[in-house]
Request: fold
Amino acid sequence: MSLDVAAPSPLTRASTFLYLRPRLVLTLLLLPPLLWLGIVYLGSLFALLAQSFFYIDDFSGLTVYQPTLRTYGELFTPANLTIILRTVMMAATVTVVCGTIAFPLAYYMARYAGTKAKAIFYLAVMLPLWSNYLVRVYAWKLILAKEGAISWIFQQLHLSWLLDGVLSIPVVGGPSLSSSYLGTGIVFVYIWLPYMILPVEAALERVPRSLLEASADLGARPKETLRKVIFPLAIPGIAAGSIFTFSLTLGDYIIPNLVGSSRPFIGQVVYGLQGTAGNLPLAAAFAMVPVLVMAGYLTLAKRFGAFDAL
Amino acid sequence: MTKASASAVSFRQVSRHYGEVRAADNISFDIEDGEFFSMLGPSGSGKTTCLRLIAGFEQPTSGEILIHGKSVAGVPPYERDVNTVFQDYALFPHMNVADNVAYGPMIRGEPKAQRLREAEEMLRMVALAGLGARKPSQLSGGQRQRVALARALINKPSLLLLDEPLGALDLKLREQMQVELKAIQRRVGITFIYVTHDQGEALGMSDRVAVFNKGHIEQIGSPADVYEHPASAFVAGFVGVSNILTGPAAQSIAGAPAAFSIRPEKITLIMGGEEMPPAGACLARGKIESLLYLGSSTRFNVTLEGGGELTVIEQNRAGGARGGAEMQGRPVLLWWRKDHMQSMAEAAPA
Reply:
């Protein structure tokens, strides 16, 4: 029963060497992602932050690399504050609408759909993500246009007055769906909906059936079970989904560019400032706004216990 | 609301089918008020289905269930005066222990202070006083089990259903909880319906036991009744260890080919030199095939001269086992009292 029958191969020896040094293995495994996270990811974020504390010399148009709050002074003008408010309102609305649409769908997927139906639902939710984002937004531009599919349907149903009525609502409306906030919102909801459905579905799926039975057993009607058990346990999923929908809407510049009124969102402003205007410091300062808004949003969510059940 | 005359639960030809599978097949039985009633059987025997039918999580495919004399057809769980302790406890993870226990009163709209006071009282009853602020995830398995019990009992149900509540606990804790459960049942005086696959639990706690097999009930009776007089080969085999002799082996011992069962601890093993069996006892000759020392007892497997095999369990009263490996192949004489033999309705064990 001697073990040293043959000399171990170099590969075996290397395995043994690593097996006996778990810390070394961990270091080797974590080094690349940590480098990526530390330098490329966080580094660029800090570069952005640093950039926002420089300013553009008005005469030469060159960036002056001196720490100053001048750029932030420029940022907080009434016109810019309106842009920020507009973007945040849109992001909040899109998040609420996404959550409202996603919850019943996710609930059905998690609770009632069989294996096959669930696969079909997953496919249906993910399928739009397989096609090009620009193509989908352009498609919506056509659907929402004055001569597009939606106004045609309303016409056929003799409900054009309804569409016109909706479009005549101040702020939200406009000459057509494709040139109104309403249209922008619809496309945002369409594009980000999967990012809400998937985490909510995952959260609901983790709720064991016995919890719902226990709730009913203790006298709770389905409505009370929804309010006291299902919803609180879905909140981490809703919070995760809302982080996606909220932050993605805050930063997007393509959808409001293609669909909607010409009044700009943060993303468009950043795009314009760093491109044609060449005002990188102000672009950076603008880009810090979604970061801060998200930080505030997460703090608020945590305060309300959104992550307690995690 | 309870009528003294009516049974706590009555099953009238109840069936529950899932497609082709007959989880419960034409079952009828009654559970008396205040009884500790166990439903014992292997997994898939229909015992849990019956429990879920009583709780209202399932509706029967056919037949009728009465709770305190009233049909509960179409009555949802939240309108039944029945509470359940779930196998996985099903404690709400987002609530602390006190809120879990106070869930029923909260749903009924009791003011917060009052229901938390009640919850604290219930927690004291299950020996968990002062743990109300903890989350279920911070408790041990045995503690969670007690919380689940308190959460059910706070509603003062007329029936308490327990679905293998001790299944996830280790042996020592299980034995301790058995004693406590029985004590709590005596104190609160309500009907307990207990589902288990563990015959020890069923025999130890119950007033009556129903033995389930393949969607129907094999036997209902007191624990002693079920153990001493098993109605079928299945019951004899499932409840405790049993020897079942059939055909020629039965013929050579009992004088008739009818199958019978005999419990291993009822058999006396004589190796020669000891006292002779009393007159009128059943005798069988054989030789020791193998033996297993179990600490408090020794288990012998004896092949009989007339064919067949008997398991004999002998208490090690004298200290130490009788012999060791050298005992194998030794001829022995076995005897037992005739009235300990139980003739079987079925010919072959399940």
